[in-house]
Amino acid sequence: MYGKAFAPEYQGALTTLSVNSSLTDVLAAGTRELRAAERAGLHGEVARSGLAVAEAHRRLGQVGDADRAWKASYRAARAAGDTAAMAWALWSGGTLARQRGAFPLAWRLLGLAAELGEAGGDVVVRGYSLAGLAETGRIQGDYEAVRRLHEQLLAEARRRGEARHTVWALEGIAQIHRNTGEYDTAYALFEEAAGIAARAEDRRGHAWALRGLADIVSVRDGDVERALGLLSEAETTCRAMKLSSALAYNHKMRGNVLYRAARYDEARDLYEQALAEFRAMSEPRGEALARLGLAKSLARLGRDRAETAAELAELADELGRIGLRHAREMVARAQEEFGVGAEAVR
């Protein structure tokens, strides 16, 4: 049995904030409490308020502000001698590093966060940090290395009845199954995640689950209209909560659905929109995936074959540099699809 979802990253004077609070509201409240704590010289409260500020900036795609905020939160936590607060700051920093495509840094920061969480007796930040490590490996395509960790974290979340973390783990495992072609299993997991998120009032988790369901409905069933309907429902939540990254991924997925339906003009427009959104928030993984979709759409619309080959070769090199194994394999498939030299992926 799961209770109502909560946001453990909103701490101290900000515990009244909901997991569904608009990020602009979180940023305003966090900044207000941060300034008050700074004036009062309360290092612990500076750390806790600063964490919320860092997370709001990160989720709004304001990476420079997020980077400064998590580091300031860590310094305040260290000054207060609060090991758990230091762990939370490192978790935020590691999550930001992953979002920016700095995977070695993400591994290091999240690993440190898990160690400090355990040392500080905070099982939640330890769990979130291990989850961050699992997600980093999954995004990079290292499925075998992180599948067991995902399943371990799912079992722990179920045991504690923590809805938000259960939803996250289910979605991560579902994505692994989806990417390895096990569509029925992936659908069932996304569906379970959506149900738990809805009952726990976790709107963010619900929006991501709907995106996953839309992907399966599109690729497995070819049901374009249902997939677009699920994405529209998720987009409403993303806009209401100002979830910039989730909204960009929603638009990229809408492009995928339209591309599979051979609606290439519409797909191109969605990929262009998503690409601009990812670039605005300096998110290289999303940018690369949107570029791939755009390149494929333009090729279908008659783009010069040499231009397509050059674009895909550049993308392959970029994804190799970043360390995104699964996305690089997607580029190889696109090169094969358009007959432009899969051997270009080195």
UniProtKB/TrEMBL annotation:
Pfam family, one: TPR_12
Gene3D superfamilies the record matches: Tetratricopeptide repeat domain
Transmembrane regions listed in the UniProt entry: none
InterPro entries in the cross-refs: TPR-like_helical_dom_sf, TPR_rpt
PANTHER family, per the entry: HTH-TYPE TRANSCRIPTIONAL REGULATOR RV0890C-RELATED, REGULATOR-RELATED
Protein's name according to its UniProt entry: Tetratricopeptide repeat protein
